[in-house]
Write a structure and sequence with these properties.
Elements lengths: L1 E5 L3 H14 L4 E5 L2 H8 L7 E5 L7 H11 L5 E5 L4 H9 L4 E4 L4 H12 L7 H4 L18 H4 L3 H11 L4 H8 L3 H15 L4 H10 L8
Parallel strand pairs: 1-2, 1-3, 3-4, 4-5
Helix pairs in contact: 1-5, 8-10, 8-11
């Protein structure tokens, strides 16, 4: 496994590197303090298997930097590391193609589990951000916004699928958790997206948070 950590703080570089070594003791880790150096390192064969990117960097930074990374290395998942955790930034990062968003205040265990989820093909959506003040889950509804779980017309199994989507689970994980065939899971996901009137898993996860559906079944 080859990983690239792009962050201008040595302590963050070291902390993230230690987490990655817990995941894979033989991991090859490159570190860079800005996007220019990071892109130079990532361009060397073989490409990284994973990129962890701070949004607040000298030079090219923010969502614009994330878009550049996704354009240059479309096959490499990029996890955003950020001290800025407002819902607008999180949603913008996910919309720009981030495979996950990890607040820098997260514990090593949270970071480790987030990386594992992304490696498995999932997308890490931090529940504390989705359910925090000002998040989609807490936006007041207008009179026209009367959607609820009961009005969606989803089956109990489709709600289970939506809950797992909200936790960032991949199709493979959903199949394993629910004991379903992949084509059945895909059919359920299509029905869920149609019911929510959204076009992506990220939008579905946000809608699930708004409806109070998040994380594993109690």
């Amino acid at each position: 496994m080859r990983a690239l950590v792009v962050d201008d703080h040595p302590l963050i570089q070291e902390a993230v590197s230690n987490v990655l070594r817990r995941l894979d003791a033989s991991v090859d880790i490159d570190v860079a303090g800005d996007c220019e150096k990071g892109i130079e390192l990532a361009s060397r064969a073989p490409e990284p298997d994973l990129i962890l990117l701070d949004l607040n960097l000298p030079g090219l930074s923010g969502i614009a930097a994330l878009k550049v990374w996704r354009e240059r290395f479309p096959g490499v998942p990029v996890i955003v590391l950020s001290a800025i955790t407002d819902p607008q930034t999180v949603l913008a990062a996910l919309g720009a193609g981030a495979a996950g968003f990890i607040p820098k205040s997260s514990s090593n265990e949270v970071m480790l589990n987030a990386v594992r989820l992304v490696q498995a093909g999932g997308k890490y959506l931090p529940s504390e951000i989705l359910s925090g003040p000002g998040s989609p889950r807490t936006v007041p509804r207008t009179r026209r916004d009367t959607t609820s779980v009961d009005t969606l017309g989803l089956t109990a199994r489709q709600i289970d699928v939506l809950r797992l989507i909200a936790s960032g689970a991949s199709n493979k994980v959903i199949c394993r958790e629910l004991g379903l065939a992949e084509r059945t899971v895909k059919a359920h996901i299509t029905a869920v997206l149609r019911a929510l009137k959204v076009s992506s898993r990220t939008q579905a996860a946000i809608a699930a948070a708004r409806l109070g559906i998040a994380g594993p079944r109690p």
